[in-house]
Structure prediction request, 437 residues.
Amino acid sequence: MHAVSRIGTSAYQAWRPAGPASTAGDTGGSGTPDAAASTAATTPATPAAATGRAADTAIPFQHIAPGLQRVLLETQSVGGNAAAVSLTVAAGGVASLSGNGGVVSGGDGSVQTAYGDGNKVSAGDDSIQMVAGDGNSVSAGDDSIQMVVGDGNTVIAGNDSVQMVKGDSNTVTAGNDSTQMVAGNGNTVSAGNDSTQTVTGNGNTVIGGNNSTQTITGDSNKVSAGDDSIQTVKGDSNTVKAGDYSTQTVTGDGNAVRAGNDSTQTVDGDSNTVSAGNYSTQTVAGDGNTVSAGNDSTQTVRGKHDTVSAGSHSILAVSGEDDTVSAGGRSILTVSGQDGTVHTGTDSTLTVSGQDNTVRAGDGSTITVSGRNDKVMANNSTIVLVGKESATIIGTGNRIVLGDANRVPSASSAADTPDASQILTDAGGGSGHHHNA
Prediction:
């Protein structure tokens, strides 16, 4: 729980917008306020004339605890539209400003409200700030709570803070272990390590440190986080980046998703570009995606017209039509579909089913093909043709087996080698349906 010692836990919980009931032991807004907040008071009115904003964007004072309402009524307050308007309160003080171009400053444990444009509002640690208007500068220290409604505001808080911002083109910054909730377009939102960011809107830039949790909804956002982070993004044309050991879940089309080593990516949509480093796991569904990973990775891709690639020692499972699949040496590939192109490095294991596929493998590979009209290009490899009606095999030094993949001939034992009716060699022989050139 963030420390707002001078207001009390119940006041903070009640100040939040209405939501699910609080857990036991936390009185929240629906329970009984603390002792200092036991006296009911009339909710102060929002001076709409000073802000010029619609009523539905005003700070929701109905969610402030009754005790805090009473304190606000007894606060020092000033009004007016002059740059000379300035209000300073000591630690634990409460200040309210209504007007434009004013200055409000307070020490630790302050409670500040400001309505208007171009105001400068600052407080120390353990403070609460509520600001409505445009072009304001709002800052607080550690363990603070900020609620800002408007456009073009600059909102800054220290570590362990909570920021709630609604509007466009705002700059919102917090330190480590903070929580940011931002709704609007064109905002820049950043936080330090171990923070939680929830952003809704389009064209936002969201930056988190290591071990961050980011939930983004909207289009054309730029989202980045450090190592060990969790990113959940829903929308189109977003750019999503994370460091090593991260988890990314992206839903939508035309996104660019990138993670470092040892990461997990789950992407659902079309025309996405998905990339990760070594030792990563990728699960992608949709058409026209480009999926790549480093060495020792695992890829599961389903869709049409996809381009899938991985480094050496990787495991790939790809299904669809007109896919292009490639992997480095000593990889394991399972590809099903038609009109696909499969390419691997040396000493790989391939299982290809479907029709009209083209397979190219490096030396020392084992290739099992089932279907019609497939083309296999390999040298010094073992090629198993299962239930083939026709196939074209190009290469030299290959062992070609007709039938069960379990009957692949052993290079070390003549007893394991099938007879001439089961194996074709480069010297010739075999059915005309199977051509070894």
Observations:
- Confidence is low (pLDDT under 50) at residues 1-76, 407-437.
- The chain is about 5% helix and 40% strand.
- The longest helix spans residues 66-73.
